[in-house]
Every structure is written in structure tokens, then in C-alpha cells.
Write a structure and sequence with these properties.
CATH superfamily of one domain: Ribonuclease E inhibitor RraA/RraA-like
Number of strands: 14
CATH architecture of one domain: 3-Layer(bba) Sandwich
CATH topology of one domain: Glucose Oxidase, domain 1
CATH class of one domain: Alpha Beta
Strand content: 25-35%
Largest sheet: 9 strands, mixed
Radius of gyration: 20 Å
Distance between the termini: 17 Å
Number of helices: 8
Structural class: alpha/beta
Helix content: 25-40%
Amino acid sequence: MPEPDMRNISNISAALSTCNLADAHDHLGLVCKWLSRDLTATRPARFWGYADVVQWGPTRKTSDIKAVSPSTWDEVKSFVAELRPSGHPRIYVSGCREASRDYVLLGGLSLTYLARLGYAGVVANGTIRDHDEVAELDLPIWSTGFAVMDSQGCMKVESRGTACTVAGHVVRQDDLVLGDGNGVVAVASEDIEAVLATATRIAGIESEMLAKIRSGGNLYDLVEGGGHI
């Protein structure tokens, strides 16, 4: 089977499934960053792009009761201040060390803004809100579900554009993120070429096997003869 042309990552990523990527990580001895273990999708459409990350964490006042604390806006504004349209597909990844279930990470205003800027998808390691507004968006969004309490005064942005945590996995800026009906997987930027090449070969083998099964082939014989399942 010919080697895939890695210069066309767009076509390759669009043709692969998250299962192909997971199998490729396994073949290469790499840990698969399965981000959607505890997440559900507003719409399980296929998407791919490069991670644009923000890390959230809890905030609290200092022990000095006279100290002037930063305003809520000062603590969170960087999560939208640096959003810009991009020439490459982007996935907004909103992470925190533990899934934020009590306070939402994104709401209807910010999600609508991300959609308008052309983001291809959103992954949030926590809840979102504003169901009716979100339902109008043609944007795949993975989160732990809907909630009502916003994060003002309770959560702050710890870092922007470096790394974040989703489902225990560290997602770094510009990692490749792919989502579909199976879930969401991130590929470390340094592993993209090897993982996509391996995943493409796996997808080709499975496509041939599936065609043979549909035309009457015996699965046992196919696996016995090809060594793949």
C-alpha cells in the first residue's frame, strides 16, 4: 500500500475517524489522548483542527481581608481577548484539572462568538449553558452537559495559548484535534505525521476488509489471512 502524502493534512484528517487515530496510537506505542471520555456532544458532526487552548482553575480571595482582589473581568478576559480568525481550522479547547461541573466554562455568548470567528469545534472539560442559543449553532460542542451557574467570581483563567487539561490528558497549543460520532481525540503536535500516516494505512486495510465482508467474505478468514481486526 502506498505511503500517504503527508503534505495534505487537511484531506487526510477529514477522511480519518477517531477510531483510526486511537488504533494508530496503539500501533505506535503512544498514549491516546481520548478527550471525550466524560463528554457528550451537542451534535456529533465530524470536525478537525488545531487546538487553541485555555486552562481554567478555581479562584478565591487572599487571606488578607484588606487586599484588593482582581476584578472578575481581569481574571477571565484573556479567554476571549486573544480570539482571532485563523487561516487554519481551529478547535477551542477549554480545560481544567478537574471537570468543572458546578460552574460553566462557556455560555451562549462566547460559543456564538467562536462560531462567528470560524472555529471548527469546541471541547470543554466542564459544563456549558444557554441551551436555546447553543441549539441554533452549527458548531460541534463537546462538554459534560448543560448547567445554570456561571463562573463569575469562582473560576479564573490560569493560562492561555500554552496547555490545558481535558479528561486527565494535557492538550497543548496546536495539537491536532479530531472529533466525530465516536468521540474526540487529540494528537500531540510532534506525533502528527507518524500518527496520521499509520492511521491512514489502518483505514485503508479496514476499508478493504469491510468491502469484502459486504460482498460475502468471511471475517475469520480475513483476519486469519491479514492479521488485522
